[in-house]
Every structure is written in C-alpha cells, then in structure tokens.
Specification:
By secondary structure, the chain is mainly alpha-helical. The chain contains six helices and no strands. InterPro entries: DUF6691 (IPR046513).
Length: 137
C-alpha cells in the first residue's frame, strides 16, 4: 500500500505543478526577474503550498500515528553545515539558471526539450557526485 500511496502523492504533486504552470521554466525565471517583467505566479503557488501544509500537518498530528507506518519519521538534525549550505546554494543557482527544480523537471518529461534534458543530466550527475563524495560512502 505504501508504494501506491507514494505514487498517488507524486501524481497529485505533478498534476498540481502542471495545472499551476510551474512546469514552465519561464514562470520561475519571470519570478526571479524583479527588475523587469516580474511574474508573481510562483509566490501564489508557494503560498498555497504553505497553507496546505500548515493545515495538513495539524490534521495529521491529531491522528498520533501515520496511516501506513508505525511512527512518524521526522528529521532530528537542526544544525547548518557546509554541505547543507553548499547544496542549497547549488540548488538555487541551478533553479535560477534553468527555471527547473527536480519536481517540475520530472513532471515536464512528456515535453522533453534540449534544456530540460541538459538539466536532468546535470541533476543526475549532481546526485551521483554527492553520493560519491559523501563521507558515508
């Protein structure tokens, strides 16, 4: 049941991205162009996500345990280190340059283009390098 729930959540997420126009990299780049033709669409999508998450967490916490697991799995680390900050910076640079982040990139696969393919290759190479350079490996 967990894989089905994961698939449905991913499908819902992808549909939300497509319906909101967030699979169009021009929307993200337009949002970052505050001195030019600014497109505020992304802030409304982000705001909707924050409100949904805020309400959703309150409903889920009332249950006490998740539907498909014995306990909630929440992050315990609260420190900021060079790897986290460096990864966040690389993510932001890649997102700003390409207009894609991983979710919209995967949701955009049916309309594969050269820039999207380049982003996906760079993303996979980045994941591979991160795993190779990780102290755990």
């Amino acid at each position: 049941m967990k894989p089905v729930a994961g698939y449905l959540a991913g499908l819902l997420f992808g549909l939300g991205l497509a319906l909101s126009g967030m699979t169009d990299p021009a929307r993200v780049i337009g949002f970052l162009d505050v001195a030019g033709a600014w497109d505020p669409t992304l802030i409304f999508v982000l705001g909707g996500a924050v409100v949904t998450t805020f309400i959703g967490y309150r409903l889920v916490w009332r249950r006490g345990t998740p539907l498909l697991a014995g306990r909630f799995q929440l992050p315990t680390r609260r420190d900021l280190d060079a790897r986290l900050l460096g990864g966040a910076a690389l993510f932001g640079i890649g997102w700003g340059l390409s207009g894609y982040c991983p979710g919209p990139a995967v949701a955009s696969l049916p309309g594969l283009s050269g820039p999207l393919a380049a982003f996906l290759v760079a993303m996979v190479v980045g994941w591979w390098l991160a795993r190779r350079l990780s102290p755990a490996h």
